[in-house]
From TrEMBL:
Superkingdom to which the source organism belongs: Eukaryota
Source species of the chain: Eucalyptus grandis (Flooded gum)
Protein name per UniProt: beta-ketoacyl-[acyl-carrier-protein] synthase I
Domain Ketosynthase family 3 (KS3): 146-556
GO cellular component: mitochondrion
Matching PANTHER family: 3-OXOACYL-[ACYL-CARRIER-PROTEIN] SYNTHASE II, CHLOROPLASTIC (PTHR11712:SF332), POLYKETIDE SYNTHASE-RELATED (PTHR11712)
A GO MF label: 3-oxoacyl-[acyl-carrier-protein] synthase activity
Length: 558
């Protein structure tokens, strides 16, 4: 008992505090006595009053109620004077933050006094044993039902169309959006193909003045974001009724404004006076999301995340979490990239990551096919309009699907190569299922990351086989087989494809899967034609350079 009540700085100060009234009485009775004399008298008085057992070199104090009443009845002056009159125990000198706790930062003793104290009480510790007090019950937060998140709008800008329905119908028909690059002369490059957007207009969506200044990744983002609002029935009247402090934008980009930044470098070769004054803000990855929030007047969570090709999934999951936590009711989320420019193409060529099947562009992206030779760059944007369920119901929104949850992990292995054992991907999928409360058997559709690279496709498939090995209903496809890899926008555009699959009951084909890799079970993969599927739960994967893994889950709204 005595050991457990070893003296602490707090106990010492409490003993000092309980004597404050006596100290004030002493001052009144003897106003002209020296502090040293009063200190000695007070110590004797307190010891005779408070100590009941000193047989083991320890002190005990009588009922706590007396101590508390003395403490509460003392004045600030009494407390301060007690601190000066009563010597703290040795533990006090090892405690850095206690003096500031009582507001007496400047009160202390010098080194000589410390040495004197150690000599006076060698190996001895003063202890104050407090009698047990009744525990105070703490109020627990009431258990509240978790806020559900639903998808009520979608917007896309892709090589296969800028309307979610047109885009998905093209996917169902197996149309390829990959072709020869036309926006610049790429004859010097070994790769001359991409999922390039051939026709795009901002008319009716973005002011002409901004359209001339902004990088394409921002134009794609703002257009897709506003299309998502339009698709979600956010009319002018509906927008007026929104609590703008609880509406946010979280749309990211992997590459940012590469064209604007590259043009600034070229201008700098002549003179800094030739540089675009907007080159810095319009090159940063966060500015598209910020500009959209400014345009809408939305004052809720607003930022962007950049995790290479996993960007969109990170943004979608974080946006949903803002809604779940009650920080927002409405969120626009997704990703955008426009890296089909010389510096972007050249950079990925230098990485030796791109397909060089220039003679047959539509057949270049071939996930899981044994003859795949690299991914095909794409460009565009995808944006989801996420809403809290009750909020969506109140405004009569059309609910497309429910967002169930997701997860992130890191391979912690290599800048560009996936972990050879696929442990990071496996962990990510398992954590996503656990977070969403979904069993492995419930997942019957997966939109895979599968970019058509020799290493990445097989590593992801093995992870899927490990996680869903006993799921006979599972079907897997890759949207990248038709539009290429949209980098930071890939996850959002593929999320739109997943939601459309839930809505329509059709999953799009895997084109160019002519000779499946030996490590792949073709029965798990969607064939060359669209297939009917009653989706219970859909999983969408996105992975990025740096070992970023992400998995998100959607299901029909019930």
């Amino acid at each position: 008992m005595a050991a457990s009540m070893a003296a602490s700085p707090l106990c010492t100060w409490l003993v000092a505090a309980c004597t404050s009234v006596s100290w004030e009485d002493e001052l009144k009775a003897n106003p002209f006595q020296g502090s040293r004399r009063l200190s000695k008298r007070l110590k004797r008085k307190v010891l005779s009053k408070c100590c009941s057992d000193t047989s083991n070199g320890q002190s005990t104090i009588s009922p706590v109620s007396g101590l508390i009443s003395s403490f509460c009845g003392s004045s600030i002056q009494g407390l301060m004077s007690s601190c000066l009159a009563f010597e703290p125990c040795s533990d006090h000198y090892r405690c850095n933050g206690l003096s500031s706790l009582f507001g007496s930062r400047n009160v202390g003793i010098n080194r000589r006094q410390k040495r004197t104290n150690r000599a006076r009480y060698p190996g001895e510790t003063m202890a104050v044993a407090l009698q047990p007090v009744q525990e105070v019950s703490t109020m627990k937060k009431p258990v509240t039902k978790q806020r559900r998140v639903v998808v009520t709008g979608m917007g896309v800008v892709t090589p296969l169309g800028h309307d979610p329905n047109i885009f998905y119908n093209n996917l169902l028909e197996g149309v390829s959006g990959i072709s020869e690059i036309e926006t610049f002369d790429c004859a010097q490059f070994p790769t001359r193909i991409a999922g390039e957007i051939k026709s795009f207009s901002t008319d009716g969506w973005i002011a002409p003045k901004l359209s001339k200044r902004m990088d394409k990744f921002m134009l794609y983002m703002l257009t897709a974001g506003k299309r998502a609002l339009d698709d979600g029935g956010m009319t002018d009247d509906a927008m007026k009724n929104l609590d703008k402090a609880k509406c946010g934008v979280l749309i990211g980009s992997a590459m940012g404004g590469m064209k604007v930044f590259n043009d600034a470098i070229e201008a700098l070769r002549i003179s800094y006076r030739k540089m675009n004054p907007f080159c810095i803000p319009f090159a940063t990855t966060n500015m598209g999301s910020a500009m959209l929030a400014m345009d809408l007047g939305w004052m809720g969570p607003n930022y962007s995340i950049s995790t290479a090709c996993a960007t969109s999934n990170f943004c979608i999951l974080n946006a949903a979490n803002h809604i779940i936590r009650g920080e927002a009711d409405v969120m626009l989320c997704g990703g955008s990239d426009a890296a089909v420019i010389p510096i972007g193409l050249g950079g990925f060529v230098a990485c030796r990551a791109l397909s060089q099947r220039n003679s047959h562009p539509a057949k270049a992206s071939r996930p899981w096919d044994i003859n795949r030779d690299g991914f095909v760059m794409g460009e565009g944007a995808g944006v989801l309009l996420l809403e809290e369920l009750d909020h969506a119901k109140r405004r009569g929104a059309n609910i497309y699907a429910e967002f169930l949850g997701g997860s992130f992990t890191s391979d912690a292995y290599h800048m560009t190569e996936p972990h050879p054992d696929g442990v990071g991907v496996t962990l990510c999928i398992e954590k996503a299922l656990a977070q969403a409360g979904v069993s492995r058997e419930d997942v019957n559709y997966i939109n895979a990351h599968a970019t058509s690279t020799p290493a990445g496709d097989l590593k992801e498939y093995k992870a899927l086989a490990h996680c869903f090995r006993e799921n006979s209903e599972l079907k897997v496809n890759s949207t990248k087989s038709m539009i290429g890899h949209l980098l930071g926008a890939a996850g959002a555009v593929e999320a739109v494809a997943v939601v459309q699959a839930i809505r329509t009951g059709w999953v799009h084909p895997n084109v160019n899967l002519e000779n499946p890799d030996k490590g792949v079970d073709p029965s798990k993969l969607v064939g060359p034609k669209k297939e009917r599927l009653d989706i219970k739960v859909a999983l969408s994967n996105s992975f990025g350079f740096g070992g970023h893994n992400s998995s998100i889950l959607f299901a029909p709204y019930k």
